Amino acid sequence: xxxxxxxxxxxxxxxxxxxxxxxxxxxxxxxxxxxxxxxxxxxxxxxxxxxxxxxxxxxxxxxxxxxxxxxxxxxxxxxxxxxxxxxxxxxxxxxxxxxxxxxxxxxxxxxxxxxxxxxxxxxxxxxxxxxxxxxxxxxxxxxxxxxxxxxxxxxxxxxxxxxxxxxxxxxxxxxxxxxxxxxxxxxxxxxxxxxxxxxxxxxxxxxxxxxxxxxxxxxxxxxxxxxxxxxxxxxxxxxxxxxxxxxxxxxxxxxxxxxxxxxxxxxxxxxxxxxxxxxxxxxxxxxxxxxxxxxxxxxxxxxxxxxxxxxxxxxxxxxxxxxxxxxxxxxxxxxxxxxxxxxxxxxxxxxxxxxxxxxxxxxxxxxxxxxxxxxxxxxxxxxxxxxxxxxxxxxxxxxxxxxxxxxxxxxxxxxxxxxxxxxxxxxxxxxxxxxxxxxxxxxxxxxxxxxxxxxxxxxxxxxxxxxxxxxxxxxxxxxxxxxxxxxxxxxxxxxxxxxxxxxxxxxxxxxxxxxxxxxxxxxxxxxxxxxxxxxxxxxxxxxxxxxxxxxxxxxxxxxxxxxxxxxxxxxxxxxxxxxxxxxxxxxxxxxxxxxxxxxxxxxxxxxxxxxxxxxxxxxxxxxxxxxxxxxxxxxxxxxxxxxxxxxxxxxxxxxxxxxxxxxxxxxxxxxxxxxxxxxxxxxxxxxxxxxxxxxxxxxxxxxxxxxxxxxxxxxxxxxxxxxxxxxxxxxxxxxxxxxxxxxxxxxxxxxxxxxxxxxxxxxxxxxxxxxxxxxxxxxxxxxxxxxxxxxxxxxxxxxxxxxxxxxxxxxxxxxxxxxxxxxxxxxxxxxxxxxxxxxxxxxxxxxxxxxxxxxxxxxxxxxxxxxxxxxxxxxx
Length: 876
Description:
Strand order of the largest sheet: 2-1-5-4-3
CATH architecture of the largest domain: 2-Layer Sandwich
CATH topology of the largest domain: Heat Shock Protein 90
């Protein structure tokens, strides 16, 4: 922005600059002319004097009268400004001289064009050489020298006069400008005073400036502005008063309406609370008998029934499952509306969660002859922090939708790592199907409650329309995003993106790298299944040779996999009886094949843990899924509902489990004080002593302080997962439970039974290592070695966390140690770490002693390592 000068400065510049410029120019011009005239006058006078003296001197040169000439030149020095006079003869010889010595005729032009005098200027003055003529002939030369003294005096006098004139003009200009500025300043100050009064709101003044000029006109205009402003203010005041009156009436009306709305809101909140409680209680009451209905229908389906009876029982089971799904959706939606959904945060294995969900839903998909394929990004970390139960709920709803709306083809699940900064991972889950698809208009209605794509969907496929609403609510409350990509008739892809923290120092329970370089011959007619299995095996470093024709199966590979399609029978291929490694058969229904076949049968979709373990089983250890029994398992089942208890005991008997029952918490506590169990199935809602309080008592005073407790409830999910953990409950299963859930539960528990001993535990229990590794020496050695190698860093981190009183870091390290000890025979470290984990549940307990105990056991383990050679101990 251009900088502007003030009025005072502008007046000074406009008043002084022209005057000073004119005065300086005119004075310089006059001084210059006067000096030039003075110099010309001096030269003319000197020339005239020289000519007169030359005429007089001519009389005394012919004849020569030197004495007279001397007198003449001496008398000539009386002339003003004349310094010396010299007369020369025609031969340029000096005759007489008066005054100071002179340079003579050296400056004389030797061949002058005429006999005129020559004037020579120099610094001191001027020299005039005048010829002395007689009869038009030069008879001599007169040389006179004049000084500039009088000219210089005249020049300085002229300069002085000019300066005096300039100063006088400057003073007059300054005086005149100052006078004008003073007048203008007084007018401006008056105008500023008037404007300030206008700004301050002074309404009782009239601006007046004397005179009849522009400033007085401005003052009159300001008076008119003040008058108009007062009128506007008065009008505005009237409008404000009217508006205030209207606003008071409106506020009174709004206050009445707010009171009515508040009463209505309270009634609505209370009604919603009553509705939520009613739905929750109704759901619990309905799900409890449903648990018995579904359970006993499954028991009946396993018995010998006529076809008509079998069809009737199967119809009951399907109807019960449909009713259960509707109840679950409504209850979840009700919880979400009430804001009562509670999220847990614990380390979870994303692949294990997806595989568990797939195995639960696989029978439904296989009934429709749909393929299920999982593609899992190997860059996804082993363990992430999240709510595993809610993740399963999200996947179950999306997969159920995909199965429901897909008549033929496949369902593909992709788990992709979109970004990993070392602290958090962006996990993208995609469920793609080849179903009916969705149009753009239908996609806009997907995530609205109690709505489906169109009315025909409800008629043809059924459902409440709440599944995707629940999924969207869960995803958003977990800080993620959900969307769909689809076209009508071309299937759909639902995607979920979550940002989850990475669990550091997670220990892998299987050394998948041990299969690096091994070769696998694989038969599978499905291109999709082949790609999924190949991706898994290649992530382990194995070389895979797939084929879709059994006759082209490669024979010289380390392992063989036969993947049987849904509607395909087992290929007639001779399976070697004495092969070093087993042949693995993947099938939707492995139980329909003869168990005497020399192969390991795994149910599709197979989990990576089961497939890896199958690769590592020796020939003599080959087993089949239907042969899984747990005769050594001791289980306590607790439920106040006799039907549920009877059904649960029937499931346990089918698995050859040693089971005892209790109908309430008090009876369960008494059983736990009398006997040690491998697993406790605990109902939550019971009279006298509920499951949570009973679990606390079991952990506090019984023989089962470290026995896994699994909560069973008719609720879909615990209201407060932290409350369960604080009570010592290890896991949660929602009723109705089935034999498949129990089978997976016992498979996990059987590999990690509680260690109860009255003697102090040893640093390393070799027999326990072998038992946990199912008798495989190499695997037992590798798991123990991984634990021992991780202990120095764990000990240092734990000591630093103790010194910094960082309970969060201590909890993370304790969790890592707990996972490592579950698969290795380190009973002493396991026991002390369990004590530390228990103490971490209370924020007021001092952890120093417990941390020191863990550090002591770590030191004992490291000392044991220095004194033992693992390769010798586990030598086959």
